[in-house]
Amino acid sequence: MIRTAVIKDIAALIELENLCFDTDRISRRSFRHLLTKGNASAFVYDINEAGKKIIAGYAVVLFHTGTSLARLYSIAVHPDHRGRHIGEKLLSEAERIAIEHECVYLRLEVRKDNGTSINLYRKFRYKQIGIIPEYYEDKMEALRFEKFLHPDSSPDLKPVQYYRQTLEFTCGPAALMMAMHALDPSIALDRKTELRIWREATSIFMTSGHGGCGPYGMALAAYRRGFNIDLYVNQREIFFIDSVRDPGKKEVITLVQKDFIEQVSALPVTVIRHGITADEIEAVNSENEIAVVLISSYRIYREKAPHWVVVTGFDSKYIYCHDPYSDDDSGISPLDRISMPILKKDFKKMAKYGKSGQKAALILRKK
């Protein structure tokens, strides 16, 4: 019988961890967090043995805030009760719960030498999507698998190579590079290009620390590299200035962006004075065009900062994005930022920034 795990199960779960794993065990503290505060679902498989209920297996599924991705964080079956299809039942339940949470993908990592689990995932039609070197404490590689949970819906995804931003403030250049490279593979995906675009498009200051890149500066950088641009902006005000308190910084941001606007006005860049809609994003469906969209990072990272993503595709319910940011301390793999599925209703809420609801997007096309 499968049921939701509760606090009083922790002792049995720790015992199961020690029996099933030699390294990378979940601690008591982590189990408590998962069962009480974590954005997760933990469940156990009970069996009767000599008139007593014991936990013969468990699984934990993590959910990613703001997206429709789920991750099978851990799954284990008691050594004495293997061969009874408990693992299959737990995996089926993990998929059911992920679907219940409106998740599109269930992803997981497994040790390269764990043949039994690998066979189970392949039996359930999981696809290997990557290898993570030295993932486990003993330096063993992890194989990365995923399963698309809605076979009746096939997302239309563009082949966009992923690039992870290397600095906290370079999401704009990283997103723009991915988009440009998808249209023109001669555009390099490297730090030199990332920093060069940042120097060209930065607002100099932002909420704190170094400045990010606004829509006009990014439009200029893309145009100079051989792309035609449709620029969507819903306001004539200076972008990102409301979150800056220092008058001197406000003055610099204003001067920089007014200069960008003057340069854009002198070029054949189409400026559309409203925020891009989901329908307009879906209309960008040819292989010769791609969208880069400004969002607020709050719904994903709980940080009030502007952030740029690349739209890689869509289906009837979701918009899929490459997110260039990945925090190593969060435990979320960069692979989880590839074609992240986001419910359209949620994307509409996150595709704006600041109190005034600033919206911006670039549609790139090869000249």
Give a structural overview.
The chain is an alpha+beta fold and 367 residues long. The protein folds into 2 domains: 2-152, 3-Layer(aba) Sandwich (Aminopeptidase), CATH 3.40.630; 157-366, Cysteine proteinases (Cathepsin B, Chain A, Alpha-Beta Complex), CATH 3.90.70.10. It has helices at residues 10-20, 28-36, 86-100, 115-123, 171-183, 191-201, 215-224, 247-265, 278-283, 298-301, 344-350; strands at residues 2-4, 40-49, 52-63, 69-77, 105-111, 127-132, 142-148, 156-157, 227-233, 270-272, 289-296, 306-314, 318-322, 340-343, 360-366. Helix 8 (247-265) links the parallel strand 9 (227-233) and strand 10 (270-272). Helix 5 (171-183) crosses helix 6 and helix 7 (215-224) crosses helix 8. The radius of gyration is 23 Å and the shape is elongated. It starts with a strand and ends with a strand.
Summarize it.
It contains 11 helices and 15 strands.
Largest sheet data: 8 strands, mixed
List low-pLDDT spans. none
Total domain count: 2
CATH superfamily assignment of the largest domain?
Cysteine proteinases
Order of helices and strands: EHHEEEHEHEEEHHHEHEHEHEEEHE
What is Rg?
A: 23 Å
Number of helices: 11
Please state the second-level CATH architecture of the largest domain.
Alpha-Beta Complex
Query: What is the terminal separation in angstroms?
Result: 61 Å
Mean pLDDT: 90
DSSP strand content = 25-35%
Shape: elongated
Number of strands: 15
Helix proportion range: 25-40%
What fold name goes in the CATH topology slot of the largest domain? Cathepsin B, Chain A
Determine the structural class based on helices, strands and strand pairing: alpha+beta
CATH class of the largest domain: Alpha Beta
